[in-house]
Every structure is written in structure tokens, then in C-alpha cells.
Amino acid sequence: MTKNSQTGAAFIAGGSITGAGVSATVGGMGLAGGFGAVGIGTVPVVGIGAVGGAAVYGAFTAIAQGDAAAFGAMGIGAVGGAGFSSVVGGMGLVAPKIGLAFGIGTVPMVGVGAVVGLAAYGIAKLLDESEIRETPTQVFERMEEKVLQMDYSAAAVMELEAFLSGEDLNQKFAALEIEDELQVLKAKFKEKQKTQNDKFVNPQPETPKTQKKIIPVIIPATEAWKCVNTLKGHLAAINAIALSPDGKILATGSNDKQVHLWDLRTGKWLYTFSGQAEAVLSVAISPDGQKIISGSGDRKISSWQINTQKFWRTYSYLNSPYSHNGFVNSVAFSPDGKYIASGSSDKTIRIWGSDTGTIKSTLNGHLDAVISVVFSPDGNYIISGSADKTIRIWDIKTGKQRFILSAHLGAVNTIAICADSQTLISGSTDTTIKLWHLNNGELIRTLNGHKTAILSISLSRDGKTLASSSSDGIINIWDILTGEIIQTFYGFSPVAFSPDGKTLISGGNHGTAKIWQQTQSFEELIIHNLLSSSWWEVLGVDKNAHPQEVKLAYRQLARLYHPDINTSENAKASMQALNQAYQKFLKQ
């Protein structure tokens, strides 16, 4: 293979990995229009990334060689894009997980067609230079297969973390900045060509200029968490978790359009509520434990009676069959159970009568999707977090905004309130957690420890312990009084404490939920796990987890506990335990 063909393969590989990263970050996506709606999974996004990489290579080749054939290929693709748009009509891209929805008109389709044409030119040049007798389709399938062999797109992204660092994948994908990215790459191509070749073709070990610093993990002798059960039943990722006030029943909402009820103590499945037309994005259980509501990508709020397991009603706005004009990202009951608050991608918050289903008021003010809504425990306020990077505190009686908090640099994905209604806690895509005075809106402190977007937080009822989960599959347990991380383990969003604070529920892979409980000290837990050969407990995975999930969990934890970058007292013992557990897994 020639040097040029190696470079071309590198661009396609980079595009494929970037596509996998987009899919892992953004979550479920779809195209909607006059033709209906179709889902876009990891495979198509990987293919889109590969097309982008091939298009970039084609652009560089055309510039370097002055080949006019590239412009012909772009023209053919542009005409095809315009024709496709005229036949199909209006389309839109939707991503319920991040509250993304925007239209795709004829002009963007022409641009996409031109990029595809340029990609075809790039692949043709690549095949010609490498003398490989494969069709473009075969090349894409081969690249796709290499990525999907890893089973989790997150693993592919982690392998090329240096390449992806600093890139805002969500923003690039949401804005479809293909042309802008091409212009930037053209300007920097000459000075970075050698660096790119070395990185993808002949990687050489090098000493990084800066080393990532991980906050020491300090674990009190009386507190540790371990996974005691994994709940399996959903067919897709879990988006929402709610617990009954007595802590006996767990509700989970999923991309499979269903809500499951579980016995939290035994882990036994109890019942499945169906009827939502799209992914379930939020769930809540009433204060009396008798009713459950869900918010969905189908723009509806649905409710059921738990004791009779019967459908109760859909909350409809005026003469519309829908509750909102966008995804219902968050639902919450008022402390007395009389009202329901809902936050939507249509930028509004609506207040409903819990029993009547009638709308009481609509709160307007956010400039982007409302992602999270909660009632203060005293019932005086509604607090909302939005993709517009603000938190708004609303007076329930007047419907007026009391404060607008705007210290976050990214979307506010999750909110929690202390039981005394004095402290507000928020988590954001800017990787920080912030504590605020609820009464005056002043910032108390910022908690830093996550490296990626924070998707979910949960506060124990006594207000002393906070759990947070981020998009890289890391869960941190915090001491609220000191602001220190007291334990870190591998898990997924969302997270929720049981009412007594002794159980933590988190999302898992492949539609599972994990149950974590406090146990003996961390050192005793390590010894117990090693003596009992429970390698899966050390790594925080299910006993029957897929090998790639085990590998990813080991790598994530090793990055946190390696003594070279973690100065806490238990780092060395933790790393030894992780190594021994992983060796036991490999030997089985």
C-alpha cells in the first residue's frame, strides 16, 4: 500500500471512529418527514463518519493534484441531493436524548450530496492508488466491521481519545458543519500532514506535554458501594428511573417505549406499562405511591394506576391530543401530589392538575429545550434546567421567574433539591456540578471531578451524599459537606437513591439497571471479592457481561486508580485488585 493510500485509509478510519463517537454521545436519533420516521443507529452514523473522512481525503487529493474530476463528482452529488429533497420533501433530524430537533431543507441536502460525491471521488482515488480490488461499498463494510467488532462505540472512541480530545462532537453533528470543517482542515493540512500520518500509520510512543490529573479517591472506612443485582428486561437503553416513597417499587423508562415496574428488594419484574409511541424519556411516581406518569418522545404525558395496573389518562393541551409540541424530557409530581410539572423540547414548562389532567399554566422564558424540572420540597418553587445553559426558579403561585442562574457553560441536564429546600444542585454538559442557595440564587461551590458531560445526579434524603453519572460511564459518590469524591465506580445514567439512602440504582448496558448497596469498608470489600473469586464485583459489572463491557470497565477504572495518577492511600491496593480481577476474568 502506498503512502497516499495509507493516508486515505487513515481519514476513513478517523471518520468512522468519529461517527461512532457521535452515536455514543448523542444516543438514539431519527429522520422524520412526510415519508414517516426512521431510526438511525450506530451503523449508519459510522457510515456517515466514513463518508466524511473519505470526502476530506478527496478534497485534499483534488487540491494537491489539481484534478477537475473532483468538481464533477461534487456536481453530480449536488444534483442528486437536490433531486432527493424534491422527491422526499421536508425532513428533520431528531435526537430525543439530547432534545435535538431541526429541519433539513433543499440547500443542506444539496451540500450533503456534494460531500457524498466528493467522498466517492476520494474512495476511487484511494482504490486506484492502493491497487485494492474492492468496491466502495466493500471498503465501507470493512471499516464498519472493524468498529463494530468492539461492540461498544464508546470503546472505539476511547482508543483514539487523543484524536477526539477537544472536539465538540454534539455541536459539529447538530450544526452539520461539514463545509466549515473542510475549510479548517485545508488550512492546517500542510503543517499537520506529517503528524496525522504518524498518528494513524506509524504511531510512535511519545511523552505527553500535559498529564491529566485525576482527583484522589478518598473512601471512608465505613462506606463502600457494590453492585448486588442487575435488572434485565428492557430491550433498549434506560432513560429514566423513579422510586416509590416507601422504597419498595422501582420504575424504569426506556427507548423500547415501555415502563417497567420492579420489586426493588428482590429485583423481580412486576409489570410493564405500554402505549407510548416513542422512547420514554422521563418517569415519576406520585407521593402516595398510587400513580405513575411518563413523558415520551411522542409529545405525550401518560399515566397509570399502579395498584390496578390500568391506564389512567393522557394529559392533553387544549384541543390537541398532545401534551407538548416537542419531546417531554422531564415530569415531576408536586410534594402534595395535586400537580404535575412537565418540561419539553418546545422550550416550555406546563403545570397540570394531577387528577383532572387539565392544564393550569404554561411557563415561558427558556430559549432552548427544557431538559429537567423539579418541585422544591416545600412546594413553593419549580426549578428548571435547560439546553440554553440556564437554571430558572419559578414561583408556583404567581408563575413568575424568581431567579435566572447562568453560571454553567453548557446545557443543564439534571437538577436536585435538598430536603430542607435551601440548596439547589445542578449538573451540566460542561462537566461540572454546582451548588446554589435556592432562596437568593447565589453560587455556593463548584464540584469538579468528571471529565465528560454530567447526565444525571441524585441526592440522598439526608442531604449528605450525592451520586452523579457522566457520559463516559463513570459514577461518582460525593460528600456534599466537604465536596470530595468518596468513591468512583463504573456505571451509566440515570442514577437515583432509594428513600433511605442505602441503595443506589443506575442505568446499565443493553437495557439493564444496576442495584448498588452500601457494604463494608473498601479494603474489606477488595479482600472479600478476591477470596470469593468475584472478579465481576471488583470491576462493577454483571457476572455474564459481554467481554467488551468487562474490558471497558477495567480500562475506565484503571485510569482512575493507577498510582501514577492517583495519590490516594488506597490507589495501589485498588489497582492490584483490579489487575487480579481482570486476570481472573481472562483465565475463565
From TrEMBL:
Highest taxon above the source species: Bacteria
Record-linked PROSITE patterns: DNAJ_2, WD_REPEATS_1, WD_REPEATS_2, WD_REPEATS_REGION
InterPro entries on file: DnaJ_domain, J_dom_sf, WD40/YVTN_repeat-like_dom_sf, WD40_PAC1, WD40_repeat_CS, WD40_repeat_dom_sf, WD40_rpt
Keyword vocabulary terms for this entry: Membrane, Repeat, Transmembrane, Transmembrane helix, WD repeat
WD repeat residues: 231-272, 273-314, 321-362, 363-404, 405-446, 447-488, 495-517
Regions crossing the membrane: 34-57, 69-94, 100-124
All copies of domain J, residue ranges: 534-588
Protein name (record): DnaJ domain-containing protein
Organism: Calothrix parietina FACHB-288
